[in-house]
Arginine deiminase (Nocardioides hankookensis), 401 residues
Amino acid sequence: MATHGADSEVGRLQTVLLHRPGNELKRLTPRNNDRLLFDGIPWVARAQEEHDGFAEALRGRGVEVLYLTDLLAETLASDDARNHAITTALAGLHLGDTLRTYLAHFLADASPAELTDYLTAGIRNDEVRGGFGIVTSLLSHDDFLIDPLPNLLFTRDSSVWVRDRVAVTSLAMPARARETQLTELIYTQHPRFVGTRTVHGWHHEHVEGGDVLLLAPGVIAVGVGERTTPAGVERFARQSFDAGLAHTVLAVPITQERATMHLDTVCTMVDVDKIVMYPNVADSLTAYAVTPTGDGTLTVADAEPFLVAAAKAMEIDTLHQIDTGLDPVTAEREQWDDGNNTLAVAPRVAVAYERNVETNARLEEAGIEVVRIAGSELGSGRGGPRCMSCPVTREPLPVES
Ligand SMILES: NC(=[NH2+])NCCC[C@H](N)C(=O)O
């Protein structure tokens, strides 16, 4: 088993998990896009081109790019994994036994590549050639029997590596819940990952990877808002302490609304002690430091300004906020377009959407090298370079002497 893991947001990125957008995006219509968490209908071919540009930019920096669908298809070569994937995908109570039995046979006959496509792009009622019964008649022709997963694109949310373990997350929105069945399958059954120890899981309280920031080795910030719940952060903190993954978890309340669905929509680390932050929240963001007591209980400190609590936990003088100095309107526009959602490939080198001209200029003024990528179509799902990537391996940060 290769060694995987990450203990920061900025250690040199070695291996990353991406999902190249595919047929699942072709399922989006003006009637289902809200439910499927897209703000528009992307031009799929262009989204793929943009995504290929993203992957190339990463490879150009020496990063190994893994694709989720490749790993899934390889995983599904095993009968055990296939059976598991089929059973969980068909567990929904909307199917009924007649259709479920038909689909189970149909999917069992599919090749690993075909099955991967069905599991990610879904199956519509009118695409099925058998299993006809009362459910087929009463569902409408465009109802999904297996939901498509257009948000697989945002691999950050469906798993997160902390040190040498991977947390399979628990996604809050029904449109995304099934994603973690796939990441769990990959991490438990793909030959590359067999033996990896996991924490959390889709059956636990909600925690999404976009809320989890590895501020420094041993210090994890977790946003709590639309996606990660208070109970989710409690469970995650306890598990992280028990597994020796962290000594402090900072629970960071964020506004429960779409524009700030995850902590990484308002701030991301760009250096060991530098964070780019949406100016409109910078003054109000707070954190509760959660630490273990040793007897299994948790100590919760009073809320403090986020940057103060973070610096204390990280044992540094100051966590510097890159002051983008933007006026509130420009700041709000660029936040919406994921200007603060950068992916560090090394300390002081960050991938960002080219469209966020002002934020990028401020990053450069602060000494951060910005690797720009196109994202006009990718951005319609509301996610930037950080959301679209799950770091599997980062070089550990050098230990300060
Ligand atoms: N880590 C993130 N900010 N992910 C963005 C996810 C966007 C996705 N459409 C959703 O609503 O879930």
